[in-house]
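Dear support,

I submitted the protein below through the web form. The confirmation email said the job was done, but the results page showed an empty box. After a refresh the structure appeared. I'm attaching both so you can tell me whether what I see now is the final result or a partial one.
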Amino acid sequence: MDLLIALEAEKRPHMQDTLGISTKLLEAGRLPDALDWSRRPDSRENAEPEEGLSPERVSLQATTLDAMGNRSEAQALRWRCFEARLSADILREHLKSLPDFEDIEAEERAHAIALAHANPNVALEPFLDWPRHDLAAQVIETHRETWNGSDWHILPKIAAIMEHEHSVAATILYRALLDDILARARSKAYAHGAKYLAKLTLLSTDADAGHPSTMDDHATYLTGLKQAHARKTAFWTLVGSGTERRPASFNARRPKWVSYDH
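What the results page shows now:
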């Protein structure tokens, strides 16, 4: 271990594997040294802001502190990391280390923090990871005008999760995706747009029954869509050719957030 540490220390700071060395020291039972290496600042040029509170680094530090008997310091560090990064993994570690019943109160407090976060995109992630899809839907519906259909690599995955039990949230996301495709005349994405419209049609009964009064029902939305994009015949031809029919996978088992492939 000493030789390995000496070799690592000779590297330039931005090339040092501080967490890797810390992990090996922790496994070897050299706890003070493990903590020291885990606390070394990340000198990489592309290090993120608040890198010191990255979930991976905090998890290692807190585990080391627990092993040293500093449980209260470990828990305070985990909670500070959750407040800064809204990491579901760190929250799980924090709750796991709490006595019975205290974890329920802490979880509710954590959810309140996430719901109040200024960035809806950041607030959404822990509820998808937990998972608490009801609270994820609440974030989507509360910030209805936030979602940008240009995030086509993310939103379809979330909408697919929401559509099974939270039709209003799914409708909001599918509309954002479709609106962006048509507004920017992205002809290569018209096939996707037709599928999104098919999803919206299928969701309309439940969504119309539960949407807020400030949100158009499906018929009104569709009328506006036809008026605004009447000349996009390539899109409407796809819609009319049957792409609006029920997708075969609509009733498929709900995909996992991390593995759903758009």
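Response: this is the final, complete result; the empty box was a page-load delay. Confidence is low (pLDDT under 50) at residues 243-262.
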